[in-house]
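check this one:
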Amino acid sequence: MQFARFTPLVRNVAARAPLRASLRQMSQLPSLNKVILMGQASYPKIRDLPSGGRVVDFMLSTTHPSNNEEKTTVRYHKVKSYNSAVADMVNERLGDSQHTTVYVEGSLATRRYVDRNGETRYDTFVYGDKVVFLPLKDSESHEPAPQHGEEPTPEGWDNQSGPAYLVNLIEQVSARVTGTFKHHYLSPKFKLELVGGGTIATYLCTINYATVAERAQNHPFRPSFMMGFSCIAAAPSNPMFHIPLNGKKVSLFQVKLRPVSPGQIDTGLPTHAIILNIKKPISVGASRCPADKVSFDLRQFPSPPTHTMRRLHVSLIILFIVAGYFYFKSPSHVDEAVSPPESDLSQIPLGPTSTGYDLVVLINSETADFDNRQLLRRELFNLPNNLTPCRQLNGRIHYKFFITQGNVRSELLRRLRSEIMEYDDIVALPRMPTWEKELAMLQWVDSDQGPEEYRNAMLLDSHTYVRFDQILAELDYMAKESSEAERNQPILWGSLEAERNQTRAVILGESLVGDLLNIPDLLPPRGSEASILSHILDNRSDDLVSHISLINDNRFVEWPNNPYTVPKNSLAISMVYQPDDFARITDWFKPEQPQLCSMTRPENRIGVITSSFIYKDNCMLDASIPSTMNKRSYAKKHDYSFIARSSEFAQQVFRGRRIVWGKIDAIEKTLPEYDWLFWLDMDAVIMNEEIRVEDILEKFRQDLGDEEFSKKSLFVTKPKHDPMINAGVFLLKNSVWSFDFLREVQHRKENYNRIFYEQRAMWEVAQEPKWAEGAHIFGDSSVFNTFPEDYVPGNFVVHFAPAGCPAEQVLGALRTGL
């Protein structure tokens, strides 16, 4: 019985033996992962790593012949390198988004990740082990630029033998000159003398560019300047630069820059250059222009002699011809259309791998700072307007403004209510001391109104610029490199000492937020004007505070009134009070600020749109926000976009017509973003959230038939006792007919200030034979525009349009129904 029981197992093992042997043999076969590319590099992205290194990504485009002899196919390849030397060269050569030819050797790599929907995805790219920048212009030397696969070390020079070594001078000289002088004082022509090991080499040089670089480390108040220049050997017989080694390390040279006149340069001499990097900046006085002495460190290994490079060029050409032949003979490759590379958003998940936000930003703002809040939405959160708002906030970052609402003028209050209706990102707090407001902001994060889950909170002043892309990268690194115990430790991160008196930008881990909300002794005493941060710093020696990890980071800096002296690795820049300065910082850093949401396109792009303009009589002041919340809730339930607009109403004063005409302007502006717009006046209330816009359109399609329905773009009610349509609620399709119709309505000047205004203009235009076919005017007001006296439970929308103010009726319907 025992033998019978084990017989199937023995047979199974015997059956698997050939397969295992086959796999073992395959594993012993030689393998190769080698990629060689040469093409145009573009779209560089460089990130500073917490470890101090840099990682660079760029796109490399290669051209291939198409079946059509007159066309070529362009393919794009992602290249990534963790070599700091490559990152520096890419930053120099592609910093202004110019294209240049690059030779890359490396290997294929595939990254596996889980996107925001929980699906496993793969991203394939090339690890660039060796990167060679080829000449920018045909007129320049055709010797390739230095290889940046490995950064040279002093030992690399020590291993050379012989009394001297020939360094082949390559494409361009790059130098960083430190001083208080301005770069345009430098002469465009100068003499360059290299002094090393007793040998002097002289070159006549021309400045190609000179830009302000980051501040010198030892001289924070003296900006440094990056100069790029090309040089010509001073004598035809000395095209090479001789460096005597004699078994010793030679890496430091003195460089003398002397202005010369253009006539001293013989353009017939061979052009050479050498890559140099500053070793110890030597400050020069403001009165000494140009700089007369700078120290450099030679960065590159010697390039091979010219004849070797020629053989390399020939070998590369043969290699590409052979590889291209087999590539295009393969049936698995088909021609692709010429197109730019896809955005990284299609490859990299926007949302966190688990639920919740990595960072919730709590912004301290003043009530009247309308323009400042709009500036932050645009520059920090990629929200230039609210025409296409997030239907679902599923990004890695979330934010709220917190204002102190005291006694404000009626005009400011109306504008504030409009802003809240449009963006839904403002929380009003009563006036209170600094630390109590900070605590209230943290309490919001932990309340039912805050996010369900988060990992870090940031207290931010509204005049601080933040590079959230870098902040998130740092948080990712911390999470990856920390143990479970370290991740649960309370952290307080920012420029802590500099922000004692005013919190401008500090990050608190979720654990610390919980401690502050549950341990009163961590907070300042009642009546104190101190901030939470200053109280913690003042009591850092106490046992209650000592467990908090305090990260004092000098990358949180103050604004020096120009972007050029801001350190390149800065994470936050405080005290930026002018809107233009925010834009200058953005232009300087070109950050990739994270998206607040995934802007996926729904099957039907439907927008629910209303007015957020409050008239001077303040009739709808109290009812405005509840009415907006009613429509926003409906839109969120059915995955529609919600749009509230006030600017188009405010601008009617410039056109000399009634404010209500802003409705037409707002619809014209918004309609291109959607397939359908569902307009509701502020005094219209959705009573039945279960009815979808698609259900209404389907009902019209069934009533009219497919052919007739396809001709219609406007669906609007004409109540049975009214002389014209009611334009308080209607559906409008994104079509040529609709845009032409709206233009025609806009031109009916006789109705600009005539009673019924835009409603009469829409009615008159829709009655004309030219426009009648595109408008479906129906009398059944129960579909989506029911008056209160006709309301039956289950109706979709009730529209209050009394002769007086409808606010009480609207609030009553929202509270208890009808």
